[in-house]
Amino acid sequence: MADELRKTGISVVGDVPWGTHLCHFYETKEDLLDILIPYFKAGLESEEFCIWVVSDPLGEGEVRDALRQAVPEADRYLAAGHIEIVPYTRFPPSRQLASPPEHIEIIPHTVWYLKDGAFIAERVLNGWNQKLADALAKGYAGLRANGNEAWLTEENREAFSAYEKTLDESLAGQRMIVLCSYPLAGSSAAQIFDVVNTHQLGILRRRGKWERIETPEPIQAKAEIKRLNKELGQALDKRSEPPAILTYGIAVLSVIAAVIILLLMDTSLQAAAHVSLFLCAVIFSTWFGGIRPGLLAIVLSVLAFAYILPPPESFAVEIPHLPRLLLFALLAFFVGSLTAAQRNKAASLRRARDVLDGTVQQLKQTNEALRREIIERKRAEGRLRLSEDRIRLIIDTIPVMAWSTQPDGIVDFLNQRWLDYSGLSFEQYIENPTGPIHHEDIPRVMEKWRTSISVGEPYEAEMRLRRADGEYRWFMVRTEPLRDEQGNIVKWYGVSTDIEDLKRAEAALKESQRRLEEAQRITHVGHWDRDLETGRITWSDEIYRILGLSLQERDSTRTEWLDIVHPEDRQRLSLAIEEMQRGIRRFDVEFRIVRPNGEVRFLHSLGDVIRDERGRPLRRFGTAQDITERKQAEEKLRATSEQLRSLSANLQSAKEEEGARIAREIHDELGSRLTSLKWDLEGINKILSDSGEQLPELRKKLETMIELTDETIDTIRRISSELRPSILDDLGLVAAIEWQAKEFQTRTRIVCTCDCSMENVGLNRKQSTAVFRIFQEALTNVLRHAQATKIDIRTKQEDGQFVLTVSDNGRGITEAEKSDVLSLGLLGMKERARLVGGEIDIARSEEGGTAITVRVPVARNGGC
Description:
Elements: E1 5-7, E2 15-17, E3 21-26, H1 29-45, E4 49-54, H2 60-70, H3 74-80, E5 83-87, H4 121-137, E6 143-148, H5 154-170, E7 176-183, H6 189-197, E8 201-206, E9 209-212, H7 217-230, H8 244-264, H9 271-289, H10 291-308, H11 322-397, E10 401-405, E11 411-414, H12 416-422, H13 426-431, H14 442-455, E12 459-466, E13 472-483, E14 489-498, H15 500-523, E15 525-531, E16 537-539, H16 541-547, H17 570-581, E17 587-594, E18 600-611, E19 617-626, H18 628-690, H19 696-723, H20 726-730, H21 733-748, E20 751-755, H22 765-786, E21 790-798, E22 801-808, H23 815-818, H24 824-835, E23 839-844, E24 850-857
Parallel strand pairs: 3-7, 3-8, 4-5, 4-6, 6-7, 20-21
Antiparallel strand pairs: 1-2, 8-9, 10-11, 10-14, 12-13, 13-14, 15-16, 15-19, 17-18, 18-19, 21-22, 22-24, 23-24
Helix pairs in contact: 1-2, 6-11, 7-11, 8-9, 8-10, 9-10, 9-11, 10-11, 18-19, 21-22, 22-24
């Protein structure tokens, strides 16, 4: 059993035999877990019962969680009672309180090391022995234990050191391995040296690596001393003895030398001289070669004593000599045994002394190295504290709320900004960690946080946190785990970033998007966006509605959409897109689309190319509006306008015809009657003139009546001409224009110059009437608005059109006057021209006045 090696799970230690007593120096809880987790894992896998007495800085919950992460079947081991995790304030008083096998033991809340406030070594040793007996009784291979001695104080350190020595001695031959953990920060160099002296092996972390602070030689030395005490009579190890031929040769030579000396000496010497010389040979042979060469020397001495030194006349041993030979043999054997034993002991003691001297030297070197390392560590700790102070100052001044937690999620640090925001002290926060979180967010964020801890993944969540004044603000909380070299989580670090303004901006953006979508829905305007690198098209929801597509198709990758466009409009649309891409003009086109149900809709789309700073095209962006209703309204308006124009043309034609009829009736009937009346009045006036001077007053009235009749006839002629100038029907449009110009000049004193050399203008009666009425309206406008003194009138035929130009030297028409919807004269002129298929242009003349140009296509059937 003593030679049986057990795996420690600690790579720097390797395998050790039962009864090994180790010590372990740590600085952080991570150092503890780095050694103890593999230590207990190896024990569980080796069917050993494990006891873990925990103390600060590790708690029972952290230990269980760490075991679960490192040992896949940790819960099974815990449930089966293979391992017992004991706070250092617990101790099992008797085996009657232990739970049955295959269950974790229920241990009363008593004291493990400090029962009743005092440390009693005997009680603790009995506790370990009791645990070992229970483990062996349950069929475990042995007991593996660890005790964290962080609770030690100066008052009980000396007593505990004596306990460690006793424990180290009592472990010999026991199926038990004990690892004691000591905090390095609270240990001086002398205390470390004392701890190492009470253990067989020690380890600590140096320059980031675990190293031994004592080699296995002390264990070997102690084992050697025990073996020598038990087997003092055994010979020296064969590897340290001289060659056998040499030792036996020395024995033979020693006896021969004694014989030669005796032969050379006086034969009258007493037998005592023979005995002394042979004993010297035996002692020398035994001292040099050991017990076997000594025995050879004894045998040779007896033979020499019996057969060589007596008279050689007979080789038979005489009876009187036998007692002397036996006495010599016994004496020689006794002396040789004592000499061999003394030699073996001296050799073993020399070897042990050499080992111990080497160990002492190594311990001195280790102690000196530890002293230097402790000084270096203290300096490093000072630098670390300074660095931590600086880091803490930085963390307290950064514009975010920072914090950290232990591996189990318990918060152990909050920066100053966090405390200032919440208005809480660290202790107040620890009492109620979820207090600052909005009650509606607690279930969601805590469930996600527990999940992140269990799987060891980063945590991110949005939550509302209460400010010191009671207002809740939105925060983005992010947490990342810090892992050691083995991948175990040793810390969680997190930040809480205020996103209240971002949330409000997002809400405002969502509201703006909602309003935009609503406006697009109401106005039937959507937007589109094409990524020129990927070719992907993104449409707003309204575009989908306009195109008659389902909103579920928004997630589909669409790179082409010309198949939706009406076949007759695709080429025109492609040309417009190409011109936009080349920068010729912006995209502005109306086209038709065909919905999946076959319905045709009209769209008006505007767009442009978005380029980077180097002018490279990146995207095409634009809008599309469903103008189907507008197109339908325009079509209806166009039809209505055509109907109105037709009605207006009919009205104008009817008016002209009615005017012509009225003019003829006035001219023919009323004019003829007035003419007859005038003739009758003239006849009466002539008769009265021939009759003398009897009736002068009557003559005078008749003359007045004749003048009034002339004026009435002129007025009737003027009205008849305005209703329908007979000259227009009799002599044609050009003569009517010249006549109207002369009449206008006579009436207004505005000089009118006519350049009307055309004989046959080629217009029909309807067209001629329309041009003449436009000419009359143009003269009227000059009289009312132009303030002109001269009018130029020109007629010509150009490109199959009759062209009439009326220009003046007045003030000129303004753009506002041209576009004035209340200018009925201009509107009437334009409408008259449109009714006969012509057009009218109103612009500035060369003299600064207004120039009105009327163009009417010549009628195919000709005529005036």
